Request: fold
Amino acid sequence: MPAEELELIQRSLNGDLEAWGEIVGRYKEAVFAVTLSILRNYADAEDATQDAFIRAFQNLRQYDLSRKFSTWLFTVAANVAKNTLRKRRREKEPPLPEMDGDPAEEVQSDFRIEAVRRAVAELPENYRAPVVLYYWHGLPLEEIGEVLGLPVGTVKTRLHRARALIRARLMEQGVIRDALG
Reply:
């Protein structure tokens, strides 16, 4: 862990909200991407992101400094998002309208990238979360397993199946002509 990040965590543990604000600023986009990949709804993901940072701050004393901070934080965010899904299912409330895309789509106009992002957004949650963590956030398989509470072999299988589903969807839409794209 970088010394600067460790210092921010230590200051946050001592109640320094400015230091915690710096941590939030560094990770808010990545945490939002994690919650959005699970919830598939901007409003719910925004709420879950805020809840994740609150929960992380409240439980910062339980954070093991020998672990990578981002992995711990993404785990908190994934758990908050999964709890939101469970609550939504229990209450049987209709979900808010699903997202049309990813904020990055507005910046990136390339047709293939947009098509891939849409295909990822259409994946079932158990495939979507590993894809986002692996490809968009560059987490190693072991960390994805930690974040999602899965064995590494299951993460590999889900990534393989997700790629096959994305490939099939892109072929169906005519974005690519064959498996080699």
